[in-house]
Automatic annotation (TrEMBL):
<dbReference type="Pfam" id="PF16209">
    <property type="entry name" value="PhoLip_ATPase_N"/>
</dbReference>
<feature type="binding site">
    <location>
        <position position="401"/>
    </location>
    <ligand>
        <name>ATP</name>
    </ligand>
</feature>
<dbReference type="InterPro" id="IPR008250">
    <property type="entry name" value="ATPase_P-typ_transduc_dom_A_sf"/>
</dbReference>
<feature type="binding site">
    <location>
        <position position="594"/>
    </location>
    <ligand>
        <name>ATP</name>
    </ligand>
</feature>
<keyword id="KW-0460">Magnesium</keyword>
<dbReference type="InterPro" id="IPR006539">
    <property type="entry name" value="P-type_ATPase_IV"/>
</dbReference>
<feature type="binding site">
    <location>
        <position position="498"/>
    </location>
    <ligand>
        <name>ATP</name>
    </ligand>
</feature>
<feature type="binding site">
    <location>
        <position position="401"/>
    </location>
    <ligand>
        <name>Mg(2+)</name>
    </ligand>
</feature>
<feature type="binding site">
    <location>
        <position position="403"/>
    </location>
    <ligand>
        <name>ATP</name>
    </ligand>
</feature>
<keyword id="KW-0479">Metal-binding</keyword>
<dbReference type="InterPro" id="IPR032631">
    <property type="entry name" value="P-type_ATPase_N"/>
</dbReference>
<feature type="binding site">
    <location>
        <position position="675"/>
    </location>
    <ligand>
        <name>ATP</name>
    </ligand>
</feature>
<dbReference type="GO" id="GO:0000287">
    <property type="term" value="F:magnesium ion binding"/>
</dbReference>
<dbReference type="InterPro" id="IPR023299">
    <property type="entry name" value="ATPase_P-typ_cyto_dom_N"/>
</dbReference>
<keyword id="KW-1133">Transmembrane helix</keyword>
<feature type="transmembrane region" description="Helical">
    <location>
        <begin position="282"/>
        <end position="305"/>
    </location>
</feature>
<keyword id="KW-0547">Nucleotide-binding</keyword>
Length: 735
């Protein structure tokens, strides 16, 4: 069914081999670009024509060129040199500046394109330049190396077929993301095994979205029918990302050179124009209008003066015969141009020379600025283009992310609430910190029998419902060991929230040990190891705002554990102490804590079998895969039993409040963008001094995403803010 679906706009790639694998269908060869990256604007051959075209698109340069040509063509009162030399100087200086900046880009491109990459050829590792890499080549990447192109992840040195990646240079995220190898190839460990792989990959044509990828790999064993596996963004390693905490990985190139997602996200290389230059162009047009009107008035006055014959031909300036026979309109136009040349000094070419020189030299002053030198990295500022120097001081708006920008992105588990009972690790009692306490009840009496069962389910849910990886090592890049753990585990995840939750539950008696051979192991309070088979992961996404796992216990029970935002969990809960948990969640949100709710449901073997079929069909779809998966998730994630909620703190960065205060004093408007609950966002804004106690806060919120209700809220705000006493009607506003 879904596996047989044809894909109209796709590409087919043979992995490592340029001939079809045994049993593969006939294939029309496709041409793919090589792996060269080009960020430069000019080449040696097109520099002069292209640069002149760019420069004469500027109104000022074009104007001075016209004046210069007029002076060459007609008999004018001033020499063509007066316009030609300054124009030549401006054009030359700008061309040299832009040529030098483009030469630096060429230099950087060459360094990247000549970088050595390890290929696999005939079962052996070969070193080649990055630019020689082709689609279908199998590449080996070592720890701390950048991926040379977009790769499908085949296998890794880690036993579980995962690897850790940082994508700082792509999206600014410094946390470790986990990627997963293709199921049928993750056991391959050496070059010979990888080289023996016969497979084809069908995937979409290149597109710039970093987080979206849909494909399918067909693995051929002997002459049998191929095994088809779905490929998603979790299997795609992007160019520019860096491999971390993994010795080596093997991957097959699917997008190379200018087709990689990184290259497709490059901004266009058209010349940027600063606000100062744009305003100068406006003034230039105004002065040009004044100049034309002056030349026009003077031409009219000249012919009015010469209307009398005695003034037209005075004795000292007799006309020649050809001059007397000239067309009157042509003569008037020539006189008009002569007046234009005579008055052209109203637009100073020297100003443009000065501005170009100031920009060029100003870029060096930025480079030399000692206060912008970072001692940690040993690097100063780098000026890639000097066209926008003055823009740095003209900023009106600052848009800032909250997590990791205003806050430290260093999450700390504060408490959890299970059916109204609050558990706080390391509670202070009489001035003493109680380490590894099993939970202190701060609201009610301790839970009874059924409550104890729910409590254990809650802890198990948090130990199992995540994408955290475990590294049994002290030397983890950029991460520190949890000193308080009973076992030396270091947790790595793309989400710091997940690490904080797993570490917090560890302090409450349940330790997540590892994922081995698709079995998750946890250590309970009695120091017994419990094993759960990981059946399915329903990944987190920003639309659903939740994630789920389906696991099978050693007794054969199948559980679906789900954690997510309260707005996405509460509507899907059919039983549990909803009111008590909701009250606690809202209280924590007001204090600025990040909250999550946890729920579960039991599945019968028959229900799981249906779920598995639905998920498999959706995952194998090549078209609208995300939409189909979302529909399946919606069917599965319902009728939950609520277990409880968690609260995690993310502290503000040092001097974040002072920085925002200074920006506001400078007249810069600051916007904080966050996906938190309304109350959490407001608490953070007060803490970082974006809001003051006397700030009037306008809430544009609606529980249901409907146009009508949103319009009502906007209408109320308009009445409040814009027209407090106005007679605005709803009908006139809706337009």
């Amino acid at each position: 069914c879904a596996g047989e679906e044809n894909w109209v706009d796709s590409r087919t790639i043979y992995v490592g081999h340029h001939e079809p694998p045994p049993g593969a269908e006939a294939y029309i060869p496709q041409r793919f670009p090589d792996n060269r990256i080009v960020s430069s604007k000019y080449t040696f051959w097109n520099f002069i024509p292209k640069n002149l075209f760019e420069q004469f698109r500027r109104i000022a340069n074009f104007y001075f060129l016209i004046i210069f040509l007029v002076q060459l063509i007609i008999d004018t009162p001033t020499s063509p040199v007066t316009s030609g030399l300054p124009l030549l100087f401006v054009i030359t200086v700008t061309a040299i500046k832009q040529g030098y900046e483009d030469w630096l880009r060429h230099k950087a491109d060459n360094a990247i394109n000549q970088c050595p990459v390890h290929f696999i050829q005939h079962g052996k590792l070969v070193r080649k330049q990055s630019r020689k890499l082709r689609v279908g080549d199998i590449v080996m990447v070592k720890e701390d190396e950048k991926f040379p192109c977009d790769l499908i992840f085949l296998s890794s040195s880690r036993g579980d077929g995962t690897c850790f990646v940082t994508t700082t240079s792509l999206d600014g995220e410094s946390s470790h993301k986990t990627y997963y190898a293709v199921q049928d190839t993750r056991a391959f460990r050496n070059e010979q095994e990888i080289d023996a792989l016969h497979a084809t990959i069908e995937c979409e044509q290149p597109q710039p979205d970093l987080y979206k990828f849909v494909g399918r790999i067909n693995v051929y064993h002997d002459r049998n029918e191929p095994i088809a596996r779905p490929l998603g963004s979790e299997n795609l390693l992007l160019r520019g990302a860096t491999l971390k905490n993994t010795e080596k990985i093997f991957g097959v190139a699917i997008y190379t050179g200018m087709e990689t997602k990184m290259a497709l996200n490059y901004q266009s290389k058209s010349q940027k124009r600063s606000a100062v230059e744009k305003s100068m162009n406006v003034f230039l047009v105004v002065y040009l209008c004044i100049l034309v009107s002056k030349a026009l008035i003077n031409t009219v006055l000249k012919y009015a003066w010469q209307s009398e014959p005695i003034r037209d031909e005075p004795w000292y300036n007799q006309k020649t015969e050809p001059e007397r026979k000239r067309n009157l309109f042509l003569q008037a136009f020539t006189d008009f141009l002569a007046f234009m040349v005579l008055f052209n000094y109203i637009i100073p070419v020297s100003m443009y020379v000065t501005v170009e020189m100031q920009k060029f030299l100003g870029s060096y002053f930025i480079t030399w600025d000692e206060e912008m030198f970072d001692e940690d990295t040993g690097e100063g500022p780098l000026v890639n283009t000097s066209d926008l120097n003055e823009e740095l001081g003209q900023i009106e708006y600052v848009f800032t992310d909250k997590t990791g920008t205003l806050t430290e992105n260093n999450m700390e588990f504060v408490e959890c609430c299970i059916e109204g009972h609050v558990y706080v690790p390391h509670v202070i009692c009489n001035g003493q910190i109680l380490h590894d306490c099993t939970g202190i009840d701060m609201i009610d009496s301790s839970p009874g029998g059924s409550g104890k069962e729910r409590e254990e389910l809650f802890f198990r849910a948090l130990c199992l419902c995540h994408t955290v990886q475990v590294k049994d090592d002290d030397s983890v890049d950029g991460l520190k060991k949890n000193r308080l753990s009973r076992r030396s585990c270091i947790y790595i995840s793309s989400s710091p929230d997940e690490v904080a939750l797993v570490e917090g539950i560890q302090r409450l008696g349940y330790t997540y040990l590892r994922l081995k051979d698709n079995f998750m192991e946890i250590l309970n309070r009695e120091n017994n190891i419990e094993k759960f088979e990981l059946l399915e992961v329903l990944s987190f996404d920003s639309v659903r705002r939740r994630m789920s796992v389906i696991v099978k216990s050693s007794t054969g029970d199948i559980f679906l554990f789900c954690k997510g935002a309260d707005s996405s969990i509460f509507p899907r809960v059919k039983e549990g102490k909803i009111d008590q948990v909701r009250a606690r969640v809202e209280r924590n949100a007001v204090e600025g804590l990040r909250t999550l709710c946890v729920a579960y449901k039991k599945l019968t073997a028959e229900e799981y079998s249906n779920v598995q079929k639905l998920l498999q069909n959706a995952k194998m779809a090549l078209q609208d895969r995300d939409k189909k998966l979302a529909e399946v998730y919606e069917k599965i994630e319902r009728d939950f039993i609520l277990l409880g909620a968690t609260a995690v703190e993310d502290r503000l960065q040092e001097k974040a409040a002072d920085t925002i205060e200074s920006l506001q004093k400078a007249g810069i408007k600051v916007w904080v963008l966050t996906g938190d609950k309304m109350e959490t966002a407001a608490a953070t804004c007060y803490a970082c001094k974006l809001f003051r106690r006397n700030t009037q806060i306008l809430e544009l919120t609606t529980k249901k995403i409907e146009e009508q209700s949103l319009l009502d809220v906007l209408f109320d705000l308009k009445k409040t803010v814009v027209i407090p006493n106005g007679n605005l009607t709803r009908d006139t506003f809706s337009g």
